[in-house]
Write a structure and sequence with these properties.
This protein is of the alpha/beta class. The chain folds into two domains: about 1-90 and about 150-235 and about 330-410, 3-Layer(bba) Sandwich (FAD/NAD(P)-binding domain), CATH 3.50.50.60; about 95-150 and about 240-330, D-Amino Acid Oxidase, subunit A, domain 2 (D-Amino Acid Oxidase, Chain A, domain 2, 2-Layer Sandwich). Helices cover about 25% and strands about 25% of the residues. Strands 1, 2, 8, 9, 10, 11, 17 and 18 form an eight-stranded mixed sheet that branches. It has an eight-stranded mixed sheet with strand order 5-6-4-13-14-15-12-16, sandwiched between helices. The protein has a two-stranded antiparallel ribbon with strand order 3-7. Strand 9 and strand 10 (about 185-195) form a beta hairpin. The longest helix is centred in the first third of the chain and has 25 residues, at about 60-85.
């Protein structure tokens, strides 16, 4: 045993980091095992906080959790920025979802009806009203939905701020891959670092065992691959690939867009997220290709083609980055939060397209449980035990399939 902590978190993406920060604030000693804390899907995600425009049929239970996390975001951002001394790029700028043909307009009308039936605030606009809000939109825009409550954050800045906040809160980082979970007398007791891990640091080296009273598996799409986890509690999480582009808006073109713009173009989803820094994020593909993270010419072409139909002026902007990442997707598109059937092992994974949005509520839920409390009411439909043998997938969620996977990467 190289070191003992109250809580050891496997995975240093934004979900693992927020869990570590919030848990350390409760007075527990916390360690995080990850070769590159702050990396993962956050480096690719666009950061839309889109509880309303991300609504899909059959996901009303998830909607409640999304709305609760969105409600907490302003206070969460203020606290995190004070704790870290760093901006997270939060913008309460709203979202405009538009359609370019009659079929896509009908789809958007159906979404508007579902939003209103769910008690959500959104306003239907004509094509002319959409272009008045965003003059760079194509003349062919047929209508749209204005959602002032859907905001955005910069996931890269969010991850960096969480790393700093964790360090200041006393969280210990073990920078290495984890090989397997240690189970002692029927209880999760820590992990073993992978042989050959580089920069394990903080008093631990490759092959060392890190002991802990409680272990949180927050490894994103890798969560289902950790060795040593009993088969009946291994999270059913799979990777879904998303390709994303980043462009730069030169000063003469600013402001290019004033808010996040989303669209359905010939049945395909595309979004454009403008940052105050001048960066414009365009995404995202949705591909069931296992662990492949190759950026393809076809993926880049499709994104630029659809974005150009939406905002023709985008072809004048410099293309500065192409990236591909993996969303952690569960069978019902919802996260797995809280204790498993194995004592001492908790999950914080499977967030799919809502990882950035669910960051505040995930940190609060896991910290409450790790400090000895019950699973908060808002998270009870999302406990890992819903996938145990004999369990039933909760009402209000739809099992995912390759054909039904959502196109957003957020």
């Amino acid at each position: 045993m190289s070191r003992t902590s109250d809580v050891l978190i496997v995975g240093g993406g934004i979900i693992g980091l927020v869990t570590a920060w919030r848990t350390a604030q409760r007075g527990l000693s916390v360690a995080v095992a990850d070769p590159a804390p702050g990396g993962g899907a956050a480096q690719v995600a666009a950061g839309m906080l889109a509880a309303v425009t991300e609504l899909h049929y059959g996901e009303q239970t998830l909607l409640r959790l999304n709305l609760e996390s969105a409600r907490r975001y302003p206070a969460f951002v203020a606290e995190l920025e004070e704790a870290s001394g760093q901006s997270v790029g939060y913008r309460a700028c709203g979202t405009l979802a538009v359609a370019l043909d009659a079929d896509d307009r009908a789809h958007l009308r159906e979404l508007h009806t579902l939003q209103r039936q769910s008690g959500l605030e959104s306003e239907w606009l004509t094509g002319r009203e959409c272009r008045r809000l965003e003059p760079m939109l194509a003349p062919g825009v047929r209508g749209g939905l204005r959602v002032d409550g859907d905001h955005q954050v910069d996931p890269r800045l969010l991850a960096a701020a969480l790393v700093t906040a964790c360090e200041r809160a006393g969280v210990v980082f073990h920078r290495g891959w984890v090989e397997r979970l240690s189970v002692v007398r029927g209880r999760a007791a820590g992990v073993v670092l992978a042989a050959g891990a580089q920069g394990a640091g903080q008093g631990a080296g490759p092959g060392d065992e890190l002991a802990a009273e409680q272990v949180v598996l927050a490894g994103g799409s890798l969560s289902g691959r950790l060795g040593g986890v009993p088969a009946d509690v291994l999270p059913p999480v799979r990777p879904v690939k998303g390709q994303v582009l980043r462009l730069t808006v030169p000063a003469p073109y600013a402001p290019f867009l004033s808010r996040t713009v989303r669209a359905v173009v010939r049945g395909s989803h595309v979004y454009l997220v403008p940052r105050e820094s001048g960066e414009l994020v365009v995404g995202a593909t949705s591909e069931e290709l296992g662990w492949d993270t190759t950026v393809t010419a076809g993926g880049v072409y499709e994104l630029l083609r659809d974005a150009h139909e939406l905002v023709p002026g985008i072809t004048e902007l410099p293309l500065t980055e192409t990236r591909a990442g993996l969303r952690p997707c569960s069978p019902d598109n919802a996260p797995l939060l809280g204790p498993t059937a194995l004592p001492g092992l908790h999950l914080a994974t499977g967030h799919h397209r809502n990882g950035v949005l669910l960051t505040p509520v995930t940190g609060d839920v896991l910290a409450t449980v790790l400090a000895g409390g019950d699973v908060p009411e808002e998270a009870r439909p999302f406990t890992p035990r819903r996938f145990s043998a004999g369990s039933v997938v909760p009402a209000g969620s739809v099992p995912a399939s390759p054909a039904a996977t959502q196109e957003q990467f957020v």
